[in-house]
């Protein structure tokens, strides 16, 4: 079921076009990643989806409500984690969450529920300004989850965090999604984070330039490569080239470009006595992204 729908949306700041004719959909309970370089238009799109600004043209709806005419209803359904923390550094984590909860008119157990979900009970009485980057991010996410939103917008939530902290945060977020069928819209430039999404949109210069599932994008835009390190390499390359199949030398090893892993299995069966050591490298999301940059 479509939960978020963006239809032919453009956004201008003066004469600068930040988004141009963008269309996308997000199904309920799924995670969608919007991938792109800095300045590509990701944060502008999130600002529109969060009702912080309005489109110059086009239409955005969330759960059937138009964002420009039903703003109050829409805001009651969303939680947002911005790139920069919005917590008051002079107050404790608990005080920040209590104040936000009153603004959201949440129930009395909302603060404890959010702190438990993000495992931040141990830092509840610490001043936000004294927290590490990872601790502050957990507090930010706890704040966003206070009203029990139906959709969570994450605008580059792990930028600047170390790999271990990123993994811990994502473990918590994904567990929350599974338990509550939470819909997540993520903007990121970390490719490994985008890999976790159900669907990916790649944005460049304000336009959607690629879209698909992680596996679908890799299948369509990348190649599977087989590197043969040891064996009767000369015999293999002679036969493969004679058959018109792409095959070349790479640093004294044999590189064969394949269309699928199944083709790799067939090749191993064909040369089972000629290959003694090999490696198969499937295309990655990074390959998809870099190919787009190379294509311009």
UniProtKB/TrEMBL annotation:
Which GO terms label this protein's molecular function in UniProt? ATP binding; ATP hydrolysis activity
Can the keyword Lipoprotein be found in this entry's annotation? no
The alphabetical list of record keywords is: ATP-binding, Nucleotide-binding, Transport
Start and end of every ABC transporter domain?
A: 4-230
Q: Which InterPro entries match?
A: AAA+_ATPase (IPR003593), ABC_transporter-like_ATP-bd (IPR003439), ABC_transporter-like_CS (IPR017871), ABC_transporter_ATP-binding (IPR050763), P-loop_NTPase (IPR027417)
The keyword Metal-binding appears for this protein: no
Which Pfam family is an annotated match for this chain, by its short name? ABC_tran
- What superkingdom does the record give? Bacteria
User: Which PROSITE patterns is this protein grouped with?
Assistant: ABC_TRANSPORTER_1, ABC_TRANSPORTER_2
In terms of SUPFAM superfamilies, this protein maps to:
P-loop containing nucleoside triphosphate hydrolases
The family annotation for this protein states: Belongs to the ABC transporter superfamily.
Q: What is this protein called?
A: Abc transporter related protein
